[in-house]
User: What shape does this take?
Amino acid sequence: MDNIFEVLNNFNFSGSYESHIPYGSGHINSTFLVTYKDNGEEKKYIVQRINKNVFSDVDKLMDNIFGVTSYLREKIKASGGDENRETLNFIKTVDGKKYYTAKDGKLYRAYVFVSDSVGYNSADSAELFRQSGIAFGRFQKLLADFPAETLYETLPEFHNTKHRYETEFLPAVEKNAKGRKNTCEEQIKFVNDRSAYCSRFTDMISDGRLPLRVTHNDTKLNNVLFDKNTNKAICVIDLDTVMPGLALYDFGDSIRFGANTAAEDEADLSKVGINLEYFKAYAEGFLSQAGQSLDQAEKDNLAFSALLMTFECAMRFLTDYLNGDTYFKTAYPEHNLVRAKNQLALVADMEKHMDEMKAIINSL
Assistant: This one.
């Protein structure tokens, strides 16, 4: 980053500059770990360049993040927790703004680095996955009274499965822009045969049967920080997609990502299925924190939410494949089709095990 010192000098960091290095493996924002010294004590900060191509309205994005993290700090402090480790702490610029606009027009934000923490890209044990459930369940619990309607919807219709089906998937099939329809007729039929799934949650929202919540919307394992000594979950990170939604979205997408017995682009579908041990572990962690704040309709639909979020993801992969791979990054021409087949195989396996999944939730 050529203008690093211009950027750093415009944030309220304490002490004197020591060093900076590229940090993390994110694909959206460029990230740096910056070290300062303050009276002999090392102070570390994260500085990120915000991707304006992905997040077009940065004011709304940062308003959401500051609003949620400020609220979390107060709730954590009031409950006797460590507000400096259990949520991200964003730093304003020297002139009191939530992000800095550099002379070249690029946008930057900063927050305090969470010390003695580690992240993981995949769960190698049920216990680690349970800990991520604790983290996202605690996120829900702490924000249960936050007025979700005051947040901006930075990614409109993001988990509106009915919208994804009617406004994106069906037109992609009809248009057949890249002539790929004949290579995925079976998958298209699978989706169409289950189109009734798409309106289940949207209908319940319309009828007032599901409450609007603050949702993270990207509940992958690598968006949780763990204590490097105990491996206990510390806090939830990557709050760019925080907005109003359903708690079910966050629970379901965690299961989709973490309880698949194979990677989401595994081509051998015989390896794909729902890991019920991991499902139970995550549900235990999540409900141990969020259980008291969820209503009965939410609890009744937790198992189905895993199926629906997987179905929605499969539909998005298939839509992108039909459109010519314009959204998701691909490594080879059939990559999105392989992903879609994988996720649809997971949907089929969840359908077979839905009674067991519901029984696990009820037992908790």
About this structure: The CA atoms of residues 284 and 364 lie 7 Å apart. The longest helix spans residues 302-323. The chain has twelve helices and eleven strands.
